[in-house]
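Key result, reporting period 2: structure in, sequence out.
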């Protein structure tokens, strides 16, 4: 089959592309290269078609989408700190751009699997987080993702098949500070023999999910009979930021003192996915334990 991936030169999008190529699908990458990098696609560049297009360019998108069997929509701005400084830009790209994709999916009858985010939940009082929990994002980035979900519901009511995947903390080789950024920062600090800097007391918890498992979740969603849903994509395993730093230092073989700094604005205290719905609706579960996934950074 032939699939379009928006943001396909980005961290997650490029891993989806590699997974689709492995499964012998034809892949068209759409990316404006503002954040994505062609290097992310270097190992599959002969097996894909690349088009430099912005998702706000509706007419350019039209020809590409019409000639496909489905859309993986990953293009977005994803930095929480930056979203406070550039609210209008984040709304334009993340909301208006996403609506362009949904409009075209409606026009041409295509299924969409797109990147939502665990940030739609905000600070929950109960964990693990289930999909029906109240949505109360605490930063502008999370607000754009919740706006996208409202659009998804609207377009599904108009007949579009849409699955939104609420990614928890995605990590993997090739990631940027935008995705599970604490891992990237710790790697850089450890490689420089500097103390890993922990924001707050380090007891805040996250659900770290490997990018390879996320790529599999996307294809499983596209291939499933599920017509509409929002699904948590995580492991259901809680890891504190302090424990993360200790695991990474152990893997690196280095002994460094931990350092502490103030917690940034818009930081969630605890985040943990209940992934039972994804198991049920798209027959997906994670494969990679955190320590095994982190080994790829050091070996």
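The corresponding designed sequence is given below.
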């Amino acid at each position: 089959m032939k699939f379009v991936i928006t943001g396909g030169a980005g961290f997650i999008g490029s891993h989806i592309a590699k997974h689709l190529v492995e499964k012998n699908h034809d892949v068209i990458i759409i990316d404006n290269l503002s954040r994505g990098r062609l290097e992310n696609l270097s190992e599959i560049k002969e097996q894909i078609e690349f088009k430099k297009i912005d998702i706000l360019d509706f007419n350019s998108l039209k020809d590409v989408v019409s000639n496909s069997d489905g859309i993986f929509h990953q293009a977005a701005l994803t930095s929480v700190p930056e979203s406070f400084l550039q609210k209008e830009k984040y709304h334009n790209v993340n909301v208006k751009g996403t609506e362009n994709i949904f409009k075209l999916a409606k026009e041409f009858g295509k299924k969409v699997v797109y990147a939502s985010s665990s940030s739609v939940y905000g600070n929950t009082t109960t964990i693990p987080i289930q999909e029906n929990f109240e949505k109360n994002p605490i930063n502008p980035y999370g607000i754009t993702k919740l706006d996208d979900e409202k659009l998804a519901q609207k377009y599904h009511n108009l007949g579009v098949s849409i699955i939104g995947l609420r990614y928890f903390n995605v990590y993997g080789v090739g990631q940027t500070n935008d995705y599970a950024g604490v891992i990237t920062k710790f790697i850089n600090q450890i490689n420089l023999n500097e103390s890993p800097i922990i924001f707050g007391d380090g007891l805040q918890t996250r659900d770290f999910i490997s990018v390879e498992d996320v790529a599999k979740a996307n294809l499983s969603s596209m291939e499933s009979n599920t017509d509409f849903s929002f699904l948590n994509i995580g492991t259901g395993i809680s890891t504190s930021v302090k424990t993360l730093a200790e695991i990474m230092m152990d893997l690196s073989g280095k002994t460094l003192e931990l350092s502490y700094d103030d917690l940034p604005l818009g930081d969630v205290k605890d985040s943990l996915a209940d992934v039972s719905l994804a198991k049920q609706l798209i027959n997906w579960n994670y494969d990679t334990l955190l320590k095994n996934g982190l080994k790829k950074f050091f070996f």
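The first strand starts at residue 2 and ends at 6. Residues 2-171+209-235+275-286 form a domain with the Rossmann fold fold (CATH 3.40.50.720). This case is discussed further under Risks and Mitigation.
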